Amino acid sequence: MSSFSSEIESIDISGISSSVEDAVLTRHSIRDYEPRAIEASVLKDLFSKSLRSPSWKNSQPWKVHVVSGAKKDKLANLMTERAKEDSAPVPDTIWPSGFPSDAKKRMFDLGMKIYGAAGIERKDKEARDKFMLRNFEFFGAPTGVFITTEFELNFYIALDIGCYLNTIMLLARSYGLGSVPQAALSAFPEVVRKELGLSDSEKVVCGLSLGYPKADSNLNRFHTPREEISNLVKFYE
Asked: 85 is in which domain, residue-wise?
C-alpha cells in the first residue's frame, strides 16, 4: 500500500443525496463501479432533468450521447486500443497546458493522493499507465456519456457545458449514482464520431462515466481536498 494513504480524507459515498447541499458536499469523482446496469427509466429521468441546466441566452449548446451495454463496451475497446498505440491525443478542443504555480501544486498533490488511494506506488510507472488507460474503459462504469457541440468553441460555450456537466453530476447523487468527468474521453474524437455515426460538425468536448459506486473501494471514498475559503473567496461591503 502506498505511503500516501495516511494523507487521504475519506467519506462514505453510499446512499442517495436528499438535498442539493448534501449532493454538493458529498460529490466527488468515482473511479470504481459496480457492474450493475443503470435502469433505463433512471437514465431517461436524469437526463430529462439535466436539460434544465442554464446556458447563455438559452442557447443549450450541448448534444448528449449516452452509451451503455454492448455499445459502451465496443467504444471502450476501440479507445483503449487507440491509446495503447501511443498515439498522441487529437482532441477537437485545446487542452490547457499552462497553470499558475498554486494550481500546479494542487494538481500534483491530487495525483499523488489518487495513486495512494488506488494502492499505486509513486515510482510504479506500469501501474500508473494501466490506471490511466481505465479512463478509456469508463473506469468500469456501466454507462458512458459524450458531450458534443456544433457551436463554435469559445469561452462561453465552455462555461455552459461546464454548468451542464455539474448539473448531471449533482442530479446523479439523488439517484445514488456516482460519476467522473473526463477530458480523456475527448482524446480521440474521430473514434467516437465513427462509432456513434456523428457528423464531422459535432465536436467532442468531453465525457463522463456514470454508475453505481463500488461501496468497498478505498478509491471511491477518497474525498478531493479544497482550498480554504479565505484563499479563494473575498467578501465586500
From this structure: 33-222
